[in-house]
Design brief:
Layout (H helix, E strand, L loop, with lengths): L3 E5 L5 H11 L5 E4 L9 E7 L4 E7 L2 E5 L1 H7 L3 E9 L2 E4 L4 E4 L4 E5 L4 E5 L2 E9 H4 L13 E2 L4 H16 L5 H19 L5 H5 L8 H10 L8 H7 L4 H6 L7 H18 L8 H7 L5 H12 L3 H10 L14 H12 L7
Antiparallel strand pairs: 1-3, 2-5, 3-4, 4-11, 5-10, 6-9, 6-11, 7-8, 7-10, 9-12
Length: 349
């Protein structure tokens, strides 16, 4: 039997229901109920671990979901959420894109990017796929954030039906069935979102092997290098600056991407318990910022708080919740973090 967890607020006192739900999904987003938290919140959820995929069904009252740059930096989850709604309406703001999701529609969320959504009372099923499993199969892996497949399109109908069937029968699958189903599901998702069947072959083609994932890995491994800049990356992969820029259209180019990753690394270092005594200026210099004043301005502009505020709030934060509302209290957060660890994501270091 596959690992399954259940969550329900009905068994909890009304004044702690929101906090229980918030802690369950804290790695993914911040929920904001439409009603005051002390008035109680009705949520039921079931999660099934398919190994390479996580599928979660939720029945909940109206609320907003917010994923900020601060949360992205803190958790650094690198997944796609494929969501199909059967009840309710979701208004979403994904930066440059705003849209509305209705029952039968499918929404794609990229957890490497911020968003705010506002939901009426809703039922939905979310399939969570690690980026490294899906992105190589997509023609435009970084252009999907906030995309909606309307319910009247054949692709949406096929994919929604498949996701519902997987969720309905997931608990009866064996581990071997789940592994096979996971691979087939990822390929179907890619086909419905815009697949690129030649992507893997192209990524192996000699020095043209500078796929987005390889470039990202190289940048991540060299964040503390004083020489890390677009010219260094272009030379390493034998690309022109224009080619390199086109790999990061949603980030404003490779220079902006490098800066964002360095700021994220600084955020993790500043808020980490093991680096609590390291001066903020030393952390900034380590990640290529020439002055503490410049770093502070960049940090506040990106995260909305100062480095000093980040240190105090990060180290004071507490995560665990033992309210007993679910059979495995941190099931969703644990799966998300472990799936990144299995892929060698940097937050696991």
């Amino acid at each position: 039997m596959l690992r399954t967890a259940y969550f329900a607020t009905e068994s909890l006192d009304p004044d702690i229901r929101y906090e229980a739900w918030r802690n369950l999904v804290s790695a993914v987003f911040e929920p904001r109920p439409a009603l005051p938290a002390e008035s109680g919140l009705s949520v039921r959820a079931m999660s099934v671990d398919l190994g390479s995929l996580l599928v979660v069904g939720v029945h909940a009252e109206a609320q907003d979901f917010i994923r900020t740059r601060r949360l992205i930096a803190l958790e650094s989850l690198d997944h796609y959420l494929i969501q199909v709604y059967s009840r309710g309406v979701c208004q979403g703001d994904y930066g440059d894109l705003r849209n509305t999701v209705r029952p039968g529609d499918i929404k794609i969320v990229d957890l490497s990017r911020p968003f705010v959504t506002s939901n009426t009372d809703f039922d939905n099923i979310t399939m969570t796929i690690p980026r490294n499993a899906l992105a190589p199969l997509l023609a435009r892996p970084d252009a999907l954030h906030g995309t909606v497949l309307p319910r009247e399109t054949p692709r949406a109908a096929v994919l929604a039906s498949h996701i519902r069937q997987v969720f309905e029968h997931a608990r009866a699958l064996t581990a071997e069935d789940a592994a096979a189903m996971g691979g087939a599901t990822v390929r179907l998702v890619a086909a419905c979102l815009g697949s690129n069947p030649r992507a893997r072959d192209e990524a192996r083609a000699g020095h043209a092997a500078a796929s987005l994932s390889l470039v990202r890995d190289f940048i991540e491994q060299n964040l503390t290098s004083a020489n890390l800049n677009p010219s260094m990356v272009a030379e390493r992969f034998r690309m022109s600056r224009a080619q390199l820029y086109r790999l990061f259209p949603m980030d404003g180019g490779v220079a902006a991407y490098i800066r964002a990753r360095r700021l994220r690394a600084c955020y993790l270092a500043i808020t980490g318990h093991h680096t609590g005594k390291v001066p903020i200026g030393a952390i900034a210099f380590r990640y290529g910022f020439g002055s503490e004043a410049h770093f502070s301005r960049a940090f506040r502009g990106f995260f909305g708080i100062s480095p000093t505020e980040a240190r105090s709030t990060g180290q004071a934060a507490s995560r665990p919740f033992g309210g007993g509302a679910t059979s495995e209290p941190d099931f969703i957060n644990d799966w998300m973090r472990k799936s990144c660890c299995a892929s060698g994501m940097p937050q696991c270091e």
